[in-house]
Structure formats: structure tokens, C-alpha cells
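Our working data are protein records whose layout never changes between entries. An example says more than a description, so a record of this kind follows.
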Amino acid sequence: MHRYIPHTEEEIKQMLEEIGVSSIDDLFVDVPKTIDGYNIPDGKDEFTVRKSVEALAKENVIFEPENVFIGAGIYYHYIPSVVKHMASNPNFITAYTPYQAEVSQGTLQMLFEYQTMMCELTGMEVANSSMYDGASAFAESLLMATRITGKTKMIVAQTINPEYRTVAKTYTKPLDIQITEVKYDETGRIDLEELKKMLSDDVAAVAVAYTNFFGIVEDLKAIREIVPQNVVFIVVAEPVSLALLEAPGKFGADIVVGEGQSLGVTPNLGGPGIGFFTTLEKHVRKMPGRLIGETKDVDGKKGYVMILQTREQHIRREKATSNICSNQAYIALINALYLSTMGPNGLKEVAWRSYNNAHALAQMLEERGFKRIFNGEFFNEFVIKVPDNYRTKWHEMVKEGILGPIPIDRVYKELGPSALVCATEVNNKNSMVRLVEVMSK
């Protein structure tokens, strides 16, 4: 692909005249000026700058993995050393979009393997080569549902990550897509009776989370029995839990999306993330992003190429299914390395340990008076009642070296003072006992 960049004054002048402005500065008149003067210090030598940066870095609070009890979409899991070692290969780090298949076979094969693994994990037939993050993947799934059905009304569970729902509203508002949220019941699952009442002929899709934001396992079988076959069934899945739970594809999901950070990526201030996006083959031409396919060359040798680039980034942009201009190929590599290293049994072991630790921690907290709010079965997260001053205590835990359960009552006001507790395989008995002691002070 070739990009033309004007470089002469005459060419720039012609382009400005074409769009009706007299200077490049005029392009920025609508940008509000928020800074009056720049407080930039004078230049310093490298030694001084390095010492200043090191001093700033020492102000960061470093949490040991076993003392992290916050989840809410980003999770701390142990990453085998081989994953980081392989991912540090310069051939992977410097790889760019594989426009030329003949010189990009390694990158293309890696992405093909990633797609295959995500299909196996979700029980779906087709996967793209990644999205930016779980939130944008979810938003794109709603846009895809409109393309499939021609309808614009969406029923979205309130138990989907609040940040995902906010991003989805931002994506869909310009397209006049209507999002209606369905509430949850005392189990923490979607209210099936309310869902039945909300269904109508103009509904394009029903979207639920599995496991949901409260950590509860939704009954996908019961939901699918309620949702008509002509309504797109979207599942926002937590990938590690799928090593234990039945795959969404087995319950008739049309689209399965989610955040892949937990598959080999450390939670660096909440990222980077990677959105996975899987669907049925019959919907493949409505799917955003791009796919990597396996083929044979003229000599009969196996090869890999980009196929079905429905985003049409290179040409016919007005016909694109999505305006994304890239993806998270390097993070997809890390996902593929992690899944290959762990294998089905290893990932299942991670899921089981996370499940067991979370249930042990729930029992410890309940014995100290921190009652669970929902009685539905959960995976590795659960919601508890906390004192009115918990938010202050939450900040104070940082001084103890603990990143405690996150308060969620600002979003779910109806719950009152409450916190979302998370445990994975990196938490141990000592760290869980210490958390309970600190929270009980």
C-alpha cells in the first residue's frame, strides 16, 4: 500500500484551497486552547535527567502479585518466563502489518494460530486477528449486529462491565442505535422475566457477560432459549474461565468477544489490552477487523495470507465495516505464546486455582462479617457488603502494600456500600489472611 504525502508548498496550498481554508493554522481553530504558556524547564545533561526520572519512579507504589485483589476486567496471573523470553524476539517486536505476505509468513502464521486458539476457547467458528481491547470489541459487536439484522435496538445486560457499556454508547450514538439495559436479580444474573418483556420484533441483539461483572456465571442455555433465533446473541466472555465453563458457542452464541489481557499480559496500569472477536462463519463478512487464512502457493506449499479484510482500509473506505486502522498483533502473539505454553490442562489448572482461592477468600470474609450480596455461583470474583467508610479504608490499604477489592457503589448505587473482590492463582493463603485482617481493622 502506498500513501501519498504532499511535500511542496504549492501542493499544500492546493489542498488547503480544496477544503476551503487559507492556512494550516486554520485547521486547528476549533481546538480549545487549554494551556497558556508551557512550564518546560531548561535543558539538562543526561545524568541529571536520569536522576530526576529515577526519583519520580521511586514514588510509584509496587504491589506484590499475591497482594492484588482487584479485578473488574484486568487480572493478575502468573506468566511463565518462556512467554516473555519468546515475545522479546526482535523479529516479533519490530514486525509491522503484514501487507506483503511473501515476506511476512512468520507474523501471518502466528496470527493464524492465535485465531485458531480463540475459536477453540470460545467454541466459535471464526476469529479475527484482534481488536484494540475488550470494550471496543463489545462496541463493534453491536455494530455488527445492526449490519446482520438491519435493526438498531439492543438489549444489554447491566451486568456487563460498566466501562464496556460506556464505550458502546459512545460508538453507537452517532448511528442512532438504541441501547436498553436489562436489570439483574438477587442471584446477580440477568433478570430473565424482564428480558422476556423487553424482547420485540425490532430487537437486533441481546448481549450478556459470562462470567459477568459481579463474577457470577450466567445461565447461557436459559437465555438462549428465550432469545429468538433471528436476534443476535452476543456474549462478552472472560477467557480464563472458559477453561472450566462450557464454551459460549455450545449455547448458540452468534458473537463472542472479550478482553484477552489475562492471557499472558501483566496489568500495567490497566493495559495494554487486546480485544478478541469470534463469530459464526455465516456472519464472517459482517465482522470487523481482518482475518488470516491458510492456503497453498503455486508449488503446493502451505502459506498464510490476509483474507476478508472487510474494513477496506486500503480502498473503498466508505464501505468499511469498521474504522479501526490497526490491531493488537503483538499482544495477540503474547496470547498465542501463553496459550501454547499452558496448553488445555495448564489453563484449566489456572482456572481451578483461581476458583478455589476466590471461594476460600469468600468464606474467610463472610466469617468476619463481610457478606456476599449475590447468591449465584461465581468464578473468581464476588461482591460483598462493606462499611460506609470502606472507600477511605481502600486507599489506606495501599500503605499496607495491598491493592484491595474495588468499591463499585458509585456505578451500582442500588447496592449501597459494596466492593468487588477478586482472587487468582497468584494469591496465596498468607496474603488472603492478611487482606481479611486489614479489612477487619
